[in-house]
Specification:
This protein is of the alpha+beta class. The chain has six helices and five strands, in the order E-H-H-E-E-H-E-H-H-E-H. It is elongated and about 60 Å long.
């Protein structure tokens, strides 16, 4: 029977310590090899927390598969904008100003993992994350852009 271990690791910097080591150690797998593969597969997401799942397909032969998810939307927005964190008081401060192209890029990365039925809906979801982060888009409040997109004044 297949066993799965899921964890959030920093892109390209997984270690044999918690959370992976204690979870994978009892399964008798080559931990060093798994960590090396995870780091190779997640290196593009350096500095971000990335969801990964290690599934032991056949415990007898120690065959396993590593599945790498996509980081949270907020992490992708911050990386795209080159900021460390969102605004601590989103009503009073602005963490940064993104372009609509940056928002579309993040939406295209996440669209497969979202409930959105198309890119327009995905962009609206990403704009919702911008609200939470205190990030303006094209110099406007993200809620204003959501309204303009829904009204058809801005096409995606």
């Amino acid at each position: 029977m297949a066993q799965s271990v899921g964890a959030m690791v920093e892109g390209g910097k997984a270690t044999s310590g918690p959370p992976l080591g204690p979870a994978l150690g009892p399964l008798g797998l080559n931990l060093a090899q798994i960590i090396k593969e995870i780091n190779e597969k997640t290196k593009d997401f350096a500095g971000m927390q990335v969801p990964i799942t290690v599934t032991v397909v056949d415990p007898a032969t120690k065959k396993y598969e590593i599945t790498v998810g996509i980081p949270p939307t907020s992490a992708l927005i911050k990386k795209e904008m080159g900021i460390e964190k969102g605004a601590s008081k989103k009503k009073e401060a602005v963490a940064g100003n993104a372009t609509l192209e940056q928002i579309k890029k993040v939406a295209q990365m996440k669209v497969k993992n979202m409930l959105a039925k198309d890119l327009k809906a995905a962009v609206l979801e990403v704009l919702g994350s911008c609200v939470s982060l205190g990030v303006n888009v094209e110099g406007k409040d993200p809620k204003e852009l959501q309204r303009l997109i829904k009204q058809g004044e801005i096409s995606i």
